[in-house]
Design goal:
The protein has 14 helices and 5 strands. Mean pLDDT is 92; it is low at 1-8 and 309-314. Helices cover 44% and strands 6% of the residues. The longest helix is centred in the N-terminal third of the chain and has 17 residues, at 91-107. It is globular and about 65 Å long. With 314 residues, the protein is α/β, with parallel strands linked by helices. Strands 3-2-1-4-5 form a 5-stranded parallel β-sheet, with helices on both faces.
């Protein structure tokens, strides 16, 4: 190999947790007007994010996942209290989410949603399908729940705006459990952001200590007294609480665990084809104008999203 040659990046399947980047922009300046005078700060911030990190991703399939199940997915039927404390999105934000979806379509980038499953489930399924196809996975998000998707030696979770990529070992060091134990951790300790209660008085550190010793939630439920030997404060009370309501913990585990077999998502050669950036539509500049993308971002966005420079129409 020529010493002066550039290293070739490994093809990677990049899957984006779209909502986190949209919500960040929304809370920063979501009602700021776009060039058409509509609230457009969330779309503007999302476009800025794409221009910043999309050109730096590894080559390979790329997909954007959206939440559309809202309060009618399978988790809400399992537990009506799931995420019930979250207020509905205001109409100004919903309108911008719609335009962001149309923007990705116009750029030729794949997007996915499902009325029954959340974006996290779509990400987990695409990640599993990519690994089956022999590709490493890069999940763009800051959501700790998505650590569950980082199961391959070459996979990583990355918040490109606020941190470095974390592989399986880095996540285990940070969370004190393996990625495949994260759902058990959240079931035991609870997840306030999703309104999942957990065991009173048991936090993530304590839950991690239990799982490092006992392995998984079912092993804990099979022998709650073993929790007394985990060197925890109030260990006896915690063991009693676990033994008192095993079905509630099993329900919590069904809520915290991600579904990695969502039907209808591409796999195998279809994944490679459907997630390959296609390049923008022919009337892309008119579409960007109509969607409210500021003209200063047009060329940067097209450069960021194009599979090759030739994919940008003249």
């Amino acid at each position: 190999m020529n010493a002066c040659s550039e290293p070739v990046a490994t093809p990677t399947c990049t899957v984006v947790d779209t909502s986190i980047f949209v919500f960040r922009a929304w809370f920063a300046r979501g009602l700021d007007p776009d060039p058409q005078g509509r609230p457009g700060g969330a779309l503007h911030g999302f476009v800025h994010s794409l221009c910043q990190w999309l050109p730096r991703r590894a080559p390979g399939p790329l997909g954007f996942c959206f939440d559309t199940s809202l309060r009618r997915g399978f988790r809400h039927r399992l537990d009506p209290g799931y995420k019930a404390h979250r207020p509905p999105a205001p109409p100004e934000l919903r309108a911008q989410f719609e335009r962001i979806g149309e923007l990705l379509d116009a750029l030729g980038l794949a997007r996915f949603s499902h009325p029954e499953y959340e974006a996290d489930d779509l990400i987990a399924t695409l990640a599993r399908n990519a690994r089956t196809a022999g590709l490493p996975v890069a999940v763009m998000s800051a959501d700790k729940d998505l650590a569950q998707t980082i199961l391959g030696d070459r996979d990583h979770l990355h918040d490109p705006e606020r941190g470095r990529p974390m592989d399986r070992r880095a996540l285990e060091k940070r969370l004190r459990v393996r990625p495949d134990q994260v759902a058990d951790l959240l079931a035991l300790a609870g997840d306030r952001s999703d309104n999942i209660p957990g065991i009173h008085g048991l936090g993530p550190r304590g839950a991690a200590r239990i799982l490092r010793r006992l392995g998984d939630l079912e092993s804990v439920l099979a022998d709650p007294d073993a929790v007394r030997r985990c060197n925890l404060r109030r260990a006896t009370a915690l063991a009693q609480a676990i033994a008192a309501d095993p079905e509630r913990l099993r329900l919590s585990r069904r809520l915290t665990g991600l579904v990695d077999h969502v039907p209808g998502l591409p796999r195998g050669s279809d994944l490679l084809a459907e997630l390959q950036p296609r390049g923008p539509v022919r009337d892309i500049y008119a579409r960007l104008h109509d969607l409210g993308v500021h003209p200063d971002y047009h060329e940067r966005l097209l450069h960021a999203a194009a599979p090759t420079p030739e994919a940008i129409p003249a």
